[in-house]
Amino acid sequence: MSDPVSEIIFHAYPQSPVAEKVRIAFGIKGLAWRNVEIPRLPPKPMLTTLTGGYRRTPVMQIGADIYCDSQCIIRELERRFPSPTLMPTDDQGLMWCLSRWTDGALFDQTVRHVLGSVGDQLDKDFAADRGRLYLGEDWAKGLKKANADLPHLVAQMRAPLSWLNDQLSDGRAFLLGAEPAAIDAQFYHVVWFLRGRWADGPSFLSEFTHLVRWEGNVQAVGHGTPSAMFPEDAIARARETEPLAQAGVAANEPQGLEVGMPVTVMPDVNGGEQPVAGKVRFANAETIVIERTTDELGTVCVHFPRSGYRIDVT
């Protein structure tokens, strides 16, 4: 991993549950990676310099290629480092479909659960930022409702954890069998978030004995081998290298995208976030890659998933 062209640079903060998902993926693959710690709250000037405005956590950088969202990150890790695999069965398509629920509705429900449990004790700046992202413009009302609805939210969380507990009741070490997979990381980050950020999390989870055993197995996978990196060095790395993303648009493109077409990309939710502008470099059913050129960076390619993101032609 000493080659600057292929070295993994991970932009995240320690408390991020989605970053924990990717850190477990690093552990499954036994990877070395550079850790750039970013602020928990905006502004995040070093990060948004690289991404063009995207502020969510985490972001992975390899040279001048910038990967936004854990979808893109996990897919790229599997492509570049195929062994040990994150997809040990023939059910890769179903695993990706299930990930849209774990990373979407289930994670959003967990966020409401955790934020609602804290109520008025939640840090005001943090409440305003995360509330806007996950609860919409009237986030203050949403937080009060989440606090009042906490017993309901606990009941809603209890059902999927019961399903996981049943899946593990035959003594298997991981959800698909003897080896850890992407789906373990995808569920683990929700459990990790509940245990660490909800005061009643440990007592609540103790009901699910097989799940707790599995949780220990996933934790033992570890995070690979991180080493610290300054954000200024990450920006210099992007400036000193060229992006390696391929160019082209796959057949049956529903939005009529073409290489070189100016577009903006942003999460497909009302979170008040800044769209990222650039020119199409690559697009297929799973991924959109846009090329950006600035005085500070030169040319970089920013990779986004198609699922869960909105692309507008400008």
3D structure, described in words:
The chain has about 325 residues and is α/β, with parallel strands linked by helices. Helix content is about 45%, strand content about 20%. The chain is built from 11 helices and 11 strands. The chain has helices at about 15-30, 45-50, 70-80, 90-120, 125-135, 140-150, 150-165, 180-195, 200-205, 210-220, 230-240; strands at about 10, 30-35, 60, 65-70, 225-230, 250, 260-265, 275-285, 285-295, 300-305, 310-314. Strands 1, 2, 3, 4, 5, 6, 7, 8, 9, 10 and 11 form an 11-stranded mixed sheet that branches. The chain starts with 7 loop residues before the first strand and ends with a strand. The mean pLDDT is about 95.
Distance between the termini: 38 Å
Major beta-sheet overview? 11 strands, mixed
Low-confidence stretches: none
What's the total helix number?
11
Structural class: alpha/beta
Q: How big is the Rg?
A: 20 Å
Q: Tally of extended strands? A: 11
Helical residue percent?
Answer: 40-55%
User: What are the secondary-structure elements, in order, as H or E?
Assistant: EHEHEEHHHHHHHHEHEEEEEE
What's the shape?
Answer: globular
**Arithmetic mean pLDDT:** 95
Strand content range: 15-25%
